[in-house]
Design goal:
The protein is of the alpha+beta class. It has 2 domains: 1-42, no CATH class; 45-163, no CATH class. The chain is 38% helix and 9% strand. The chain is built from 7 helices and 4 strands, in the order H-H-H-H-H-E-H-E-H-E-E. Strands 1-2-3-4 form a 4-stranded mixed beta sheet. Strand 2, helix 7 (135-148) and strand 3 form a beta-alpha-beta unit. Helix 3 packs parallel to helix 4 and helix 5 (96-106) packs antiparallel against helix 7 (135-148). The chain is elongated.
């Protein structure tokens, strides 16, 4: 089967005329014109054909849709993916799932704990993550959390929970030396003693969590 984009007049004309130079030239010219019209028409399918859109179109579309988590300095592939997920994220806005999506974008890893899970006042929640907080991340998250959480919920704190492991080895040795006994009545007494003592110790450091409090 010949596709519309690759087809020519010579594919459907009788064989006795397709060998003529003027027919081949006409067929080629019509093919190029049809291909140009086809490419132009594909530009009309902006959202459904996002993979082929240039970066400036993706930026404009993100601005029009108010795409969440969007930054102008992101790679083009990530921009396209964010725009694709815009409507899905709006459908889930106000739910813990939407907040977890934001945590993944801002922090890379983390989880949401509702007030009833850790014994807080109703409609409060906190976030646990192991990321290294910077001012840029904090500012971005503070702004974006207002767009994805529901109005009645309030962020209590962001808890940074990082685990470190350390191995400590220690050892000890003891050397026992015994002086030979004196010769008594022509009797010589010789004694040799060897002793080896091994010891070990371990250490397990524990770091207390510290919370980053955000004002709502």
């Amino acid at each position: 089967m010949i596709s519309y984009y690759d087809g020519q007049l010579t594919d459907i004309l009788p064989g006795n005329i397709t060998k003529k130079p003027e027919v081949k030239a006409l067929s080629y010219a019509i093919q190029q014109a049809c291909r140009r019209i086809y490419r132009y028409s594909q530009r009309l399918y902006i959202f459904t054909n996002l993979e082929s859109q240039p970066e400036e179109i993706v930026d404009l579309l993100a601005s029009e849709l108010r795409t969440q988590y969007y930054k102008s300095d992101l790679p083009l592939n990530e921009k396209r993916q964010l725009v694709k997920n815009t409507l899905i994220w709006y459908m889930s806005a106000g739910t813990p799932k939407a907040v977890e999506e934001l945590i993944t974008v801002a922090f890379g890893e983390g989880k949401v704990e509702e007030w009833f899970e850790y014994g807080d006042d109703p409609f409060f929640f906190k976030i646990e993550t192991d990321t290294v907080m910077t001012q840029e991340i904090n500012n971005f998250f503070t702004i974006m959390i207002q767009h994805v959480k529901n109005t009645r919920s309030h962020l209590r704190a962001i808890e940074i929970d990082r685990k470190t492991s350390q191995e400590t080895y220690t050892g000890g040795a003891s050397y026992l030396w015994s002086k030979p006994a004196a010769i008594l009545d022509g009797y010589e007494y010789t004694r040799k003693v060897n002793q080896r003592i091994c010891s070990g110790a371990g250490i397990r450091p524990q770091i207390q969590k510290s919370a980053v409090i955000l004002e709502n």
